[in-house]
Design brief:
Length: about 325
């Protein structure tokens, strides 16, 4: 990663930036078994103040797809094996060749109607930045989740204030938050999400950003609400618990995550799983996660811990 940049940039009004429409945006969404969520997201994208040029839905099977006709942009479904890294790579492979910015959304993300325009304005204002995480107004991932209807109400209330034209950098980052992140295609051509990380890919966004030497940033230029949908997310606490320990170690050895970050990730999750073991949240399998943590620790001690082990748990 290049040296840290200086203080937070000042916002530049969108109207003062030239030729925003010259930057073409593709939205890539990996999804599994949530056609209703995808339908909501497509409707939000159709209502954007600046439309995306292309939307790619990376799915396992046709039953995962919503109705895709009648939208004011091209919608391309691509099908193949499940797994977040596999699906995001298929999405990248399917993006139109003239696209300038790839915007990754989780299927349960509800964007502001100014999100595409804000992303374009941000990258136009910051030619040195390779990728950016947008502002998450509210995140349901750590709680019981937010319904798409409630998320839409939250976003609509924020949008009533109008486009705030915030194109400044809040902070420079070493990695981006995968539910709402955008990259210049010129900075990521040839890069891949690591398919050694199976299923939900735990920390795949951190690994992807760790391969890039140009600056990455957090900005309020584009925003939305992450529902943190629980349906289809955690089918096995043991698998996730294993990944919580094994994946950070794997990425540290690979060189895309610093040792201190890997240790912090492991300790935070292992401690949370054991502290909350007896009073687990109803939407989290803490018992299973704790068991998975210990299986990974035992495998590490034996020198045989690999991320793909979760496929056998």
């Amino acid at each position: 990663m290049t040296a840290q940049m200086s203080a937070v940039d000042q916002a530049i009004p969108v109207d003062d930036l030239p030729a925003l429409g010259d930057l073409r945006v593709a939205v890539i969404v990996a999804s599994l078994g949530r056609p209703e969520n995808l339908a909501t997201l497509l409707e939000k994208l159709a209502g954007q103040s600046l439309l995306p040029r292309h939307v790619v839905l990376s799915l396992e099977r046709e039953a995962d797809a919503p109705e895709m006709a009648g939208y004011p942009f091209a919608v391309t479904p691509v099908f193949g094996s499940r797994g977040l890294t596999f699906q995001r790579n298929r999405g990248l492979d399917s993006v139109a060749p003239d696209i300038d910015i790839a915007l990754f959304y989780d299927d349960d993300f509800i964007p502001s109607r100014f999100a595409i325009a804000g992303a374009v304005a941000f990258f136009a204002a910051h030619p040195e930045v390779a990728g950016a995480t947008g502002h998450v107004i509210k995140d349901g991932i750590l709680g019981p989740g937010i319904t798409p209807a409630e998320a839409s109400r939250i976003v609509d209330a924020v949008d009533l204030q109008g486009n705030l034209n915030e194109t400044g950098v809040v902070a420079y980052r070493r990695s981006l938050y995968g539910c709402n992140m955008a990259y210049r295609m010129s900075a990521i051509r040839g890069l891949r999400f690591d398919e050694v990380l199976p299923l939900y890919g735990w920390l795949e966004d951190m690994d992807f950003g760790g391969q890039i030497d140009q600056p990455l940033a957090h900005t309020r230029a584009f925003a939305g609400v992450h529902c943190g949908e629980k349906h289809g997310r955690e089918t096995s606490g043991r698998k996730l618990g294993y990944s919580q320990v094994c994946n950070p170690v794997y990425l540290w050895r690979k060189g895309t995550v610093r040792g201190a970050v890997a240790v912090r990730q492991i300790l935070r999750n292992v401690i949370a799983n054991h502290v909350k073991f007896m009073w687990s949240e109803p939407w989290i399998d803490r018992k299973g996660r704790a068991a998975g943590n210990w299986i990974a620790i035992a495998d590490l001690m034996r020198g045989r811990a690999i991320p793909a082990r979760i496929l056998d748990l």
